């Protein structure tokens, strides 16, 4: 194996984030896992990475691509190919930990500009090479695991070199970024101007702005700063058939808002090469507070009242009884009992005056809901551990656990039914197969007409954990669409959720997506099988 | 002429709204028009409506359509055909006042259900009959003036019988309407539940909810209640190739948000047959206040500061010096001098406490901008006259004036340049042709990153007013896209704005629109030439 990396990677090949970010599970949680679920393996340290099959990228094609990006920006080292194999879904991790590198790209390209990307797409169209746009590599839905059989080769198009802040317009309060800028880098680039983007998904430390746009991302502070699709005022894509620039004015009526065709297109229509987003004054004060409500149902009513009364904080979260009980409302404190009932976290960001005014507006709603304060400390702990969840998954996999997160959304009226349906499907599917599961849930995105539900499901790995996962995923996906939920609130479609996309947008919607794909990417080289089924499916 | 109407019409054939809504221009404004612009015709009363050519709808096709909707819902009377000829753009009115009925539909159908619409579209596809979806008939951009040559016939599909409130969900705070519900009817249906939609475009009294969705409408209270596209949580379309239902959850990440392909599709992709919108508690208190700022530039900075500081009222408007000077900041008081400098109107809607809090938040911003209060009276006058503007246009046409409104949007940084560019283009184009023009402007939609500009342009009609209009429209459209503006903030594309849609969404965007159109409406029967150029263009 050619071990040296020429491209670099931000995450370990066997899991989430950096090696330093990982720690063994605390004894408290291991005890709980053993007792409740029979998960009692000893932690296994990751071995050497597996070795991919030789690159299939033909010399002619490689030469053409090297002319575009330069030889240093076209790597076929094993280390780079392994680091760009799939994303970070649970099946992705099970596969790579099991040595399966069948989806390894044949090369990793790191373009430096929009024109580079445009030329690469044109060349790959001619050379029948599949292209997987690669931002932070954080997809948890198979968005980086395309169905690329039939192509001469597959390349990963890693956008990390396109990491510039292009311009700031402090009059219009917008900032224009290249797509490879990671979450922390975006905030660091804005901070000297006293500005923030305010987009903090759990993948924040690794995901890129291009990826946020491509997956219609939503951050933990969406109540205050909006979803990423609401932040975008303009964007440019490189497609196999040309450059596409969209966004005149904050909002207009010039036909369908085609920005929303580009946003969420998951690398299947084009590659986001520039994005202009609304920015805000960095908050002078951040105040996060823990609250306790007697039950999840009462917590739901509290969040609904806050949203519909116009008293929503910047961040509003509610953990159900189970998530509160096992302490996973706060990843840093996992396994510690933190509260009775259900834990609510409210975060206020702004000037001290703004925060005071919004806390005052929320106070009567909290009182009416019977919420009691748990103080600032739990809020601060949540803030500290807010990006830590995915590390826990690795630690659970290390001891023979299976863990998956599932998220959905619906309107308030359907929310209780959806909550019960998903829990029942998860428990029945996994327990019925001999692996009892626990299901934790929280609400983390709240709107006037509805909210998201985010489930964490944990059980012991069966002999064939991929089959175990697939059966449970099928049952849960069916339960979601049957109960009126969306198949994904913020994780995107990828390949994992494609079976339910027809239920989501109808046969007409699938035909519209296919028609757009065929128009922009007639050879179907872009992320084949992601979002849009392959033409021969 | 068969004078009786079987369908009914909500507006006079020769102009806007009802006959009773019209009044001659006050002497003050006639003096101003005569003195400044040489407009000095005597008001002409509308004569009898012109007579259209015989209906081209073949008996076979007619019989098939009557089987679907019933014979009473398929009218070929002259009165109904005239009432459904084009919309209410200035060229539309010039043409019909001049007796030009070349675009008259051959029949007017009034379907009763989604299934009716679906069957009509399938039949018209087979019979090569063009279909013009008709809501309130208020388009001012040629959205009801398709390019239908080559079709066997054209029908207007008037959705007025589909006027039900389907359901209210008071938990999720949503309401589901059929598309033919007019603005006032929607509010009347919601009022017994203590709810409001809060969507008040100038066309409110006549336009329909289906039309709001199809044109990506934005109302005068968009700052408080959002644009219509932001209110829509779900919608159903009947397309020539099937039913399309969209909208799971308030927001999701299931690929591109295809709701935004349906919204703004202007009847070219399908017919909106049901729309679910977010509703709000009807405000307990409405308070509208007039303010005065020294200049338009300072007013712009005031609105920007309010928007970016999170202190935007429900309604925020700013008239420039000219609009303020001639009193058109307030249509009911047109011709009366109302204020020096520039007039600002701020409207607060909510509970008394909410309004007080928001007025308190706005107060320091107003003070810093040097704004002085003009009290509530002017605000109340504005409220009274808020839907009256289009009537003034008819009165101006009656005395030989030409009047057009043009609206656009851009970010704050580009706004001053766009303002100057449009004014210069309008004045140069019209004055250069021997008809000096005055140009009034206001801002009526304010966002964090930018705002709309709405221009009213008045001059004397030339010998060929349609050619005069076309030359000025060309110059102004070019100026708008040259200065970075959108070709339309809330009037939509129709046929009038199609020449600039390529500048707006790029060649790639035009190809995407064409691909969607071809997929959903392969025979091209729906509103041919509206939004999407005909395939043979």
Give the overall form of chain A: globular
Number of strands of chain A: 18
- The strand line-up of the biggest sheet of chain A is 15-12-14-13-17-18-16
Strand content range of chain A:
15-25%
Global Rg of chain A: 23 Å
Q: Ends of chain A: how far apart?
A: 35 Å
- Uncertain runs of chain A: none
CATH-assigned homologous superfamily of the domain at 19-161 in chain A: Uridine Diphospho-n-acetylenolpyruvylglucosamine Reductase, domain 2
CATH class of the domain at 19-161 in chain A: Alpha Beta
Task: Find the biggest chain interface.
Answer: A-B, 91 and 91 residues
Percent helix of chain A, as a range, is: 25-40%
Task: Give the oligomeric state.
Answer: homodimer
Number of helices of chain A: 18
Mean pLDDT of chain A: 94
Structural class of chain A: alpha+beta
Write the CATH architecture name of the domain at 19-161 in chain A: 2-Layer Sandwich
In a few lines, what is going on in this structure?
The first copy, chain A, has 537 residues and is α+β, with helices and mostly antiparallel strands.
